[in-house]
Amino acid sequence: MTADQGGWDGPEPDRLYVITRGRSGPSGPGVFDLVTLIVSRAEPTPALQPEHAAILRLCRSPLSVAEVSAYLELPTSVVTVLLADLLDDELIEARAAVPAAELPDRALLEAVIHGLQRL
Amino acid sequence: MDYSGSDTVVGPAGTDLLPDTVTTAVKVVIVGGFGVGKTTLVGSVSEIRPLTTEETMTQAGVGVDDPTGVEQKTSTTVAMDFGRISISERLVLYVFGTPGQERFWFLWNGLFEGALGAVVLVDTRRLEVSFEVIGRLEERGVPFVVAVNGFPEAPAVPLDELRGALDLPDRVPIVACDARSRESSRDTLMTLMHYLYELAAPPAR
To answer: Domain spanning B22-60+75-200: which superfamily?
Structure first.
């Protein structure tokens, strides 16, 4: 694909395509929610793709997928592909968000209300 | 191709790190038209400097203003601002702001999936966007409350009148809000949480 006169505004698609090696993110709800918490389970090694290494460094403390996306300045659809690689290799732990089908239970809401009161 | 950012990615500041004890994250969504104060509200309640995540839409521009009338493939980048509130050692709440116009609804799939609920932020000068948003949330079954951001230059409309204008069911709370104020924005989120709590209550026998 060559850069044409029409141009893209925003991220360069060529670069994003290379980062994910041509794979696109899941279109529907996948393993990763925007607020799935990612925690590194290994230190980066030189053999890793730079983006994978950057994620391992970022997630030494828990970070949401949205935060990883923001700090890497990559679209979430790209970040989730990278995270799936790391999860497959057991280099990260993913702490899943509250399951989608479940209504929030009252205990959870009580905790949120209590936390907000202290804000 | 080198990814120049890999060694220089600036992560969260030391004070913004979440403890490893955090196991669960939940989210709420602030939805409204441009300039209605979503980002301001997110910034008011967030413990971290609000962050921005981008998503690209690369498809035929359905609903995108096209003055030429020629159908073309478009790439739209949409930014979503979000903030974070630590609730407890185990629980963290994320607050996302997202534009309400129909052409951005493609963002909603991942966003509302698993969200506790939404705050529809209303500017009384542009009710039509809120009207569309409310209809869409009802369709999707997302519980929401309505908050009217009080712009000094906007006409002060009694909340009851707004409820009528927005065709809002009686059970849906509507509150006035000052998105610049941490306390007022916090209270708006509290209104949503109390409403969700009521909805989660077992039905009376």
So the answer is: P-loop containing nucleotide triphosphate hydrolases (3.40.50.300)
ipTM: 0.85
Residue A98 burial (10 A CB sphere; 0-12, 13-18, 19+): buried
Dump pLDDT digits (tens) for B58-108: 654 444 444 444 445 566 678 899 999 999 999 999 999 999 888 888 888
CATH code of the domain covering residue A111: 1.10.10
Count of the separate structural domains present in chain A: 1
Question: Which residues sit opposite B82 in a β-bridge?
Answer: B51, B96
Residues 95-124 of B with CB under 8 A from A: 96, 109-111, 113-114, 116
- For residue range A29-75, list pLDDT tens digits in order: 468 999 999 999 999 999 999 999 999 999 999 999 999 999 999 99
CB–CB contact B93 A115 (8 Å): yes
Please report the sign of the dihedral spanned by the C-alpha atoms of residue B29, residue B32, residue B33, residue B35: negative
